[in-house]
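Suppose a colleague, Dr. K., hands you the sequence of a protein chain of 107 amino acids and asks what its three-dimensional shape might be. Before reaching for any lab equipment, you can write down a predicted structure in token form. Begin with the sequence itself:
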Amino acid sequence: MAISLTTAAADHVSRSLANRGKGLGIRLGVRASGCSGMAYVLEFADALGPDDQVFEDRGVKVIVDPKSLLYLDGTELDFGREGLNEGFRFNNPNAKNGCGCGESFNV
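The predicted structure, expressed as tokens, is then:
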């Protein structure tokens, strides 16, 4: 089981954590929502839960709860800009379908 980051994603998270001045890394999860059934949740992580899994890639810790990991195993987190928009992209091999905005999926 693994979660990975591209260089662009790792650089963006590292800069964001440095600007914030605290944090262990980022927490990646899923919740029931969105137009395709499941939505990605991404936030700063300041503490670990007792069952959290921690993946470190390119110097950045990605923290995932066990229930979310079932849907996220093998996901690569990317960060990019298109025109005036910028944001994270989730390259999730478990996703069967996704919505047009790329923020929700189903398995």
